Amino acid sequence: xxxxxxxxxxxxxxxxxxxxxxxxxxxxxxxxxxxxxxxxxxxxxxxxxxxxxxxxxxxxxxxxxxxxxxxxxxxxxxxxxxxxxxxxxxxxxxxxxxxxxxxxxxxxxxxxxxxxxxxxxxxxxxxxxxxxxxxxxxxxxxxxxxxxxxxxxxxxxxxxxxxxxxxxxxxxxxxxxxxxxxxxxxxxxxxxxxxxxxxxxxxxxxxxxxxxxxxxxxxxxxxxxxxxxxxxxxxxxxxxxxxxxxxxxxxxxxxxxxxxxxxxxxxxxxxxxxxxxxxxxxxxxxxxxxxxxxxxxxxxxxxxxxxxxxxxxxxxxxxxxxxxxxxx
Length: 328
What we know:
The protein has 10 helices and 13 strands. The chain is of the alpha/beta class. The chain folds into 2 domains: 201 residues, Rossmann fold (3-Layer(aba) Sandwich), CATH 3.40.50.720; 90 residues, UDP-galactose 4-epimerase, domain 1, CATH 3.90.25. The strands form 4 sheets. It has a 7-stranded parallel beta sheet with strand order 3-2-1-4-5-6-11, sandwiched between helices. Helix 1 links the parallel strand 1 and strand 2. The radius of gyration is 20 Å and the shape is globular.
């Protein structure tokens, strides 16, 4: 029989890539998405056809999880659901804590109460390191400085507590920043790419950004979803850093995108403190030696390929939008 996987956060960037990977490996994939008044399945519409809709379930980390676990009886549970925007977490800190922290406890407790033998993956974050100096690995001290990072650290530790206390196969993947053409438009990399493409096409004049000096270890979501699948196939549960091992500043990202489009970034980019976080994380750089050595994982998509793919995708998106508007 095919393995069953349950993905929470199915319609996000990571959920879409993970579902593609698992389906390619013969899994029966079920996913949980939050009900919304607007259509929010564009990342997975090419994956799940109308006849597959029975595998998509509505719910979130606040309610409705226990009955889904009981009905589906998955072999693997991937928790990718979260309030995922770090800057916004300062505006909704209580909600962030309830979803990203307490919500994970609800999920783990449901698995325990149902006495399920499924494997569990928790999407932890490099934001847990906060202001700790790089490079950061599995033994680095955590020092989060955002509600998002604090809630993720709670989830990280509660996952470890259920692993040691109840013998659950519960893993943490400490993923550093990972992007793609499916990244949400509110995240800085996609915001930069989309803004620059629109400037190139004459659709806008300026791009407003916050801290340009922040350093981030950027990889591709597709590579990182392959890593978390490998984590779940390991013979014992553990915690793993997933990263490229190189970092770039936001300014470098801006320059690379604008250069690709033959634009002078200084003429169009305006820094605005309103886009900065109350507490900034200066530098995140992952040391992923452990997963490379023990599981044989390594990233396959370079930083340049990541940026190029995002740019070319947004060029298509914006040009298609222009064509559709012209036809009207």
